[in-house]
What we know:
Glutaredoxin; alpha+beta; two-stranded parallel sheet; Glutathione S-transferase Yfyf (Class Pi), Chain A, domain 2
Amino acid sequence: xxxxxxxxxxxxxxxxxxxxxxxxxxxxxxxxxxxxxxxxxxxxxxxxxxxxxxxxxxxxxxxxxxxxxxxxxxxxxxxxxxxxxxxxxxxxxxxxxxxxxxxxxxxxxxxxxxxxxxxxxxxxxxxxxxxxxxxxxxxxxxxxxxxxxxxxxxxxxxxxxxxxxxxxxxxxxxxxxxxxxxxxxxxxxxxxxxxxxxxxxxxxxxxxxxxxxxxxxxxxxxxxxxxxxxxxxxxxxxxxxxxxxxxxxxxxxxxxxxxxxxxxxxxxxxxxxxxxxxxxxxxxxxxxxx
Length: 290
């Protein structure tokens, strides 16, 4: 999912710092920032930490609104298509890739992902791969129709929907059969090449220790905000846990600072970095009383 964010950095022409993390647990230099959330990417800005690309990309857009990747004219179409790409398109692509790569994957990686994803058995994915490829072919056919008439997925402007579809197919093409399906959809293949050519913006590495030090000397910048219409009655000051509802089911506990239909931000303290506010999207995450 980091590729999705990198393409938005590229489209906006942004400079950014990259902190590498281990591919599997433990992640001792990530947990102080997130409180236990282990999925990548996360976006630390001072003592505010944004989790999940849905939350990350909204914050990038807020800070760097031009060129827009959530343009007002098509904003209502972008999120549903991105949600479909993140869950349906990516799941089919990942199934094909893990099925083909399974025998060569490090045992530590396989054990970590099988613990992370409920019900996953990587060695059993070979049986599911034909169905996954059938689904991908159907998805690619639909995208090909759209991209025959438009330069990008929504219209003729790059948006988050393009980044979401691209990253799923970028990962999927590691499986040769998926790469062949992509090549057989000419409009999709041409669009893919255009997105790939954007690059990743201007990136410089940052040691994890530096990211932790920045958080430790910073103060969260999130203002208190309430949502009177919240169906569960969540409000600032409530002690809650936030947990993904699909995989990586590690709850993060804290006190609500801000809540809205799209986002919840919770305050927590860590002995290494001090006070941190961790931001999550509402869609795809469970909010529960602690």
